[in-house]
Amino acid sequence: MSDCxxxxxxxxxxxxxxxxxGERVAPTAEALMRSRYSAYTLADIDYLTQSLHPDSRDDHDxxxxxxxxxxxxxxxxxxxxxxxxxxxxxxxEVEFIARYRDKNGLRRxxxxxxxxxxxxxxxxxxxxxxxxxxxxxxxxxxxxNQPCxxxxxKKFKKCCG
Length: 161
Prior knowledge:
5 strands; globular
């Protein structure tokens, strides 16, 4: 068994693998976020789409997501903070930094992911960007029509959103 790309230290088949394969649901917002990162490393766009909240799927661009996933070398995931999102919660926030390399060099995607339960399962709702000078927590939301903070030059909704 290989280590899980999410950096948990567990084997993929015991960590994110069962979530991505649909054998188990994420028990927490953090587990869902970790599995979404692992899905990017595998370019599993179906899982990324399925794990989006239904209200967020209209703006999702699976072609752009696949291109980003496949054209990046995923280097690691760092959790900055987790607020709520436990097994008994209905909402949660996970701030994280995903490091990757693309044709432009080393990059990092830093966001606060907002998660909600829908039909009993955790779903990714939207992202907000941490404010400069506030490495632990911030609340500057990135609108879906604003430029993506990953630096692609595309609108957030057509890129990482």
